[in-house]
Every structure is written in C-alpha cells, then in structure tokens.
C-alpha cells in the first residue's frame, strides 16, 4: 500500500474504489473495526464498498493497495461478493462510532466523537489510533459557544469498548453531514446496514423531507418498520412529504385500519391524491402514476414550460414532458389536449404558446391498463413518461419509466442488486 500515515473516516467515506486495472468497482461507505475488551486501539478489518448495483460487500484491508485523496485502489485477488453483514464484535466507524458519547479517560468530562482516524502499524495492520472529539457542554441557551475539536489517541477516551456502544443512545449530526453529499438511494442503503437502534436514531435526527426521500428508496419491509417506529403524527407528516404514488404504495401494504388511521391524520389536500391512487391496483397505470406532473394550459408560453421543467426538485422522467389541459390544471384536470416533449420546447421561440408545439397524436393510457400494457406502451413510443387519462378525457396523472421498472424488477432488487460484478473480484476471501 502507498505510504499513508493517517486517514480520517469522514474523508474516506464516499471515495471511488478502483480495481487493479483501473476499472470502477464502487464507493467506500464505511470502515469495519474489531472492538476490544481493553483500551487498545481497535484493528481496522476492512472497508465496506458499495458496488454499482448498490450491494455492499466487505473488502479486507490486505486487498487495499493504495489510499489517495481522490480514490482507493484494490489489489488483484479475491473478495467475498456476498452482501456485507456485521459481526457481533465489529463496529461500523461511520455508521456507529460517529456521534457516540464517551468520556475522557480518568475524568468525568463528557465528549462526542465526530471523526476517527486509522493509522498503519509496523505489522501492516491498520488501527483506529486517533479520535476527533468535542466536549459536550451542559450549559443551555442561545449564547453558548461550540467547543473546539481535539484529536486524541484512542487510549485517552473511555466508554467506547465492546460493551459500551451497544446500549447507548447517540446523536446523528456527523452522519447526517455525510448524508448531505449522498443521493437518497445511497443514504437508504447506508441506513439499511445500520443496527436497528442506530437506524432509529438517524430517523429521529432527520428532517421530514429528507427522511421521506430515504424511505421512498427502502425495501417495503424496511419502510413499514420505520413507519411503525415513528410516532403516528410524524409518520403522517412523512407520508405527506413523500411522492403521492410512493405513499400510496406504502399504505397499500398496511392493514386497512392502520391505513385509514394515517389517512385521517394527513392533511385533506395531501391525502386526497393518495386516496385516489389507492382506488387502483398497484400493477395498473392508475396505481403506478403520479398525480403531480407538469400541467399547463394551452395559452402558457414556451418560456413558462421551460421554467417548470428546470425545477431541480422535479424527477428527471417527469421533466421530459409537459401536459397541456383545459382548466382546472390540478389532477383530475379539465379536458386533456396533448403533450409537449422537452426537446420540442428547446426548439421553439420562448414567447410562443405551448399550444403550437403540442403532440396531439400520442395515445394516452387508461387507468386500468395492466403493467404489461404499460410496458409495451413505453417501448412502442420510446417514452420515459406517459399520460393517464380517464374516459371523460381528464388527465389523472402520469406514469414514469422508473415506476414501471420498479414493478418489473424482483421484489428484493433494492437489497441484492441486479447482478454480481465479475472479473478480478471473486467470492473466495473472508475477513482477515
């Protein structure tokens, strides 16, 4: 391995991982350390790498040939491709050690761990030698000053042994700072790998919008577990913050009494579109659609249409098409007129009305169209988004290709990925 004296976990998390021939493998998501009963620094056993398929695997430190500020490189050899599972004597440095509460050795001074650094030894092992900490202040009030960060040897901190981390309640500030640089799907994969107690602490610390984005990316069982953990009122707030189609999919998995309870707690304007979606089977166009596409009247300008699809919060697939309807423009709308593809918007003068760019020949889906019919529709017309219209020509919503794929893939695709990475990485090595 290239000579490196100290590597902080927060700097390592998120770095790309490459194979010996420069092929992209994935990203570093965590460090795995073996905790000890004494106060000696824990040995770093390896790294958790998230592959391009979102599966997380364990890579022993002996397979790491270099750690640079911009990337980690692996050696030629074999690595177990089975999904990473944490062992009882192991701790995830980012997932569990960050924000852990402890004390300074030989005193009652309370501290919080904000980062951890590994260093190499003469035997080629890596140990968790240093901790970045802040003193926890008991003083309250808006005027209190945040304590300075210190970097101390592991031996100068007490309360981080094998039996200490399992029962304590932690904050999640440092972990949330890392999550700010990650996509919701990547955050969801990280949350899934956390111990249940830590997962709940992270959920408690997240704001509703962020947690809603993460829950949308979790498998159904994990979605239901988190929803059941949250207080009813907050769970209802999370459902309101989710996309209506995702909220409907989640509620459809609950018992009728529980489903009705959440719908009652939601604000009427938020629950109304979810209730409409619940009327349809999940494997139909009505069950797959989102009721919040971009809808404009025929007299809107091209410039207005472009402004709507530039919205950074709008999913990419929904931004590919503008739907033109007579008032009202809230779904279910007035009479559906047609669609305008975003490429056509780019070719038209900004002052022109969208009515002049309408594709009125594109057929619309009916809400009861089956999943196979929706799939053939997308393939036939090369679309990433399509309108769902009722018998009276009211636009009910839009189906996007990501929702179609979500229902076509195996139920556990978020957990196992689509396929295994092959090549230099095989299934033979175990943790060193």
Automatic annotation (TrEMBL):
User: Which molecular function terms from Gene Ontology are attached?
Assistant: magnesium ion transmembrane transporter activity
Coiled coil feature spans: none
The signal sequence is none
Q: What keywords sit in the KW lines? A: CBS domain
Q: Which Pfam families match?
A: CBS, MgtE_N, PRC, SH3_actinomycetes
Report the GO terms under cellular component: membrane
Give the CBS domain ranges. Answer: 289-356, 358-416
Q: Which domain of life is it from?
A: Bacteria
> Which PROSITE patterns does the entry mention?
CBS
Query: Under what name is this protein listed?
Result: CBS domain-containing protein
Q: Which organism is it from?
A: Amycolatopsis japonica
């Amino acid at each position: 391995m290239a000579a490196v004296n100290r590597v902080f976990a927060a700097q390592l998390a998120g770095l790309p991982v490459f194979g010996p021939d420069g092929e992209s493998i994935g990203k570093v998501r965590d460090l795995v350390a073996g905790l000890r009963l004494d106060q000696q620094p824990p040995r770093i056993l390896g790294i958790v790498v998230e592959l391009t398929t979102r599966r997380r695997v364990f890579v022993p430190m002996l397979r790491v040939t270099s750690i640079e500020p911009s990337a980690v490189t692996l050696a030629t050899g074999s690595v177990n491709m089975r999904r990473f599972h944490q062992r009882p004597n192991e701790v995830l440095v980012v997932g569990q050690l960050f924000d852990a509460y402890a004390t300074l050795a030989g005193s009652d001074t309370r501290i919080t761990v904000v980062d951890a650094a590994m260093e190499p030894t003469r035997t080629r092992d890596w140990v968790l030698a240093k901790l970045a900490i802040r003193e926890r202040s008991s003083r309250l009030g808006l005027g209190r000053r945040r304590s300075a960060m210190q970097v101390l040897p592991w031996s100068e901190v007490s309360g981080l042994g094998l039996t200490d981390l399992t029962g304590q309640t932690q904050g999640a500030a440092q972990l949330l700072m890392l999550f700010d640089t990650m996509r919701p799907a990547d955050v969801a994969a990280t949350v899934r790998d956390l111990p249940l107690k830590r997962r709940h602490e992270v959920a408690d610390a997240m704001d509703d919008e962020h947690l809603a984005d993460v829950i949308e990316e979790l498998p159904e069982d994990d979605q239901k577990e988190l929803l059941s953990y949250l207080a009813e009122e907050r769970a209802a707030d999370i459902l309101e913050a989710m996309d209506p189609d995702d909220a409907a999919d989640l509620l459809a998995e609950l018992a009728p009494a529980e489903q009705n309870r959440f719908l009652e707690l939601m604000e009427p304007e938020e629950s109304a579109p979810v209730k409409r979606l619940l009327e349809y089977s999940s494997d139909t166009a009505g069950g797959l659609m989102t009721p919040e596409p971009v809808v404009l009247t025929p007299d809107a300008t091209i410039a207005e249409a472009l402004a709507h699809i530039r919205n950074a919060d709008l999913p990419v697939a929904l931004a590919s098409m503008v739907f033109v309807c007579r008032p009202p423009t809230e779904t279910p709308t007035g009479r559906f007129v047609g669609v305008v593809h975003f490429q056509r918007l780019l070719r038209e003068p900004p002052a022109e009305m969208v009515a002049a760019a309408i594709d009125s020949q594109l057929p619309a889906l009916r809400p009861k169209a089956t999943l196979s019919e929706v799939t053939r529709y997308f393939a036939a017309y090369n679309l990433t988004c399509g309108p769902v219209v009722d018998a009276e020509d009211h636009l009910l919503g839009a189906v996007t290709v990501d929702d179609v794929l979500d229902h076509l893939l195996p139920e556990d695709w978020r957990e196992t990925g689509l396929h295994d990475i092959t090549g230099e990485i095989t299934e033979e090595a175990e943790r060193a």
